[in-house]
Write a structure and sequence with these properties.
The protein is α/β, with parallel strands linked by helices. It has a single domain, classed as NAD(P)-binding Rossmann-like Domain (Rossmann fold). A seven-stranded parallel β-sheet has the order 3-2-1-4-5-6-7, with helices on both faces. Pfam families: adh_short_C2.
């Protein structure tokens, strides 16, 4: 295989921003490996859409909150890279998988805390650590944060704090991996109309209209507003951008 054909790994690629990122990457000629936790049918559909764009794709199961499974995942990924691409490395790691949380600080339980931190920070940290040897030189890492690290919204403290840790981690990755030409950046979406916060929108009628009214561009964000930014960070045009947190919220703070 010609190394001009790049490969991206997108965690949580079966829905929402991850799905759109994976499909947009394929439209740029980048092959994609997506992970899913329990939505295999949706993941398989994403694979079909990617293949329809002329790119190669594979879906692998992964629970990003369970660090104990990472060694077996890395082994499985290595096998897939050899079998499907005849390669030992991939080019871009997109740490996208996650879960939402809107519990007020005074009501957060230790169990809830562990679930959010394991998913959004511990999992991202150790999965990245284990995958760095498989990332090709001059590759890239895109971690997912949130605009809630820059603005405050009641009930989002735990989620935002975990994402804040990811932003700091990303800057250190950029510094430590720079010698290999590997770039590391963070994407910070605003409110997006996806399944990720679907229950919140259902429980709070009018919330979408309120968010739209506070957005400079006058509407809710969509997955396609974010996926394109993620994919752009995997192009040569963004090759001089590293250690940055790029907010994609359609608003002005």
């Amino acid at each position: 295989m010609d190394r001009n054909s790049k490969i991206a790994l997108v965690t949580g690629g079966s829905r929402g921003i991850g799905r759109n990122s994976a499909i947009t990457l394929s439209k740029k000629g980048i092959d994609v490996i997506i992970t899913y936790n329990n939505q295999k049918e949706k993941a398989d559909q994403v694979v079909k859409e990617i293949e329809a764009n002329g790119a190669k794709a594979v879906a692998l199961q992964l629970d990003v909150s369970d660090v104990s499974t990472f060694d077996s995942f890395v082994s499985m990924l290595s096998d897939v890279l050899k079998d499907k691409w005849n390669q030992e490395h991939f080019d871009f790691l997109i740490n996208n998988a996650g879960i939402s949380n809107h519990t007020p600080t005074l009501e957060v339980t230790e169990e809830e805390f562990d679930k959010i931190v394991n998913t959004h920070f511990k999992g991202v940290f150790f999965l990245t650590q284990k995958l760095i040897p498989l990332i090709a030189d001059k590759g890239g890492i895109v971690n997912t944060s949130t605009m809630l690290t820059h603005v405050t919204y009641p009930g989002s403290g735990l989620y935002a704090a975990a994402k804040g840790a990811v932003e700091v981690f990303t800057r250190y990755l950029a510094k430590e991996l720079g010698a290999r030409g590997i770039r590391a950046n963070t994407i910070a979406p605003g409110a997006v109309n996806t399944e990720f916060s679907g229950d919140t929108y259902i429980k709070n009628p009018g919330l979408k209209d309120m968010i739209a009214s506070q957005t400079a561009l006058g509407r809710m964000g969509e997955a396609s507003d974010i996926g394109g930014v993620v994919a752009s960070l995997c192009t040569d045009e963004m090759g001089w951008v590293t250690g940055q947190c790029i907010e994609a919220s359609g608003t002005v703070l």
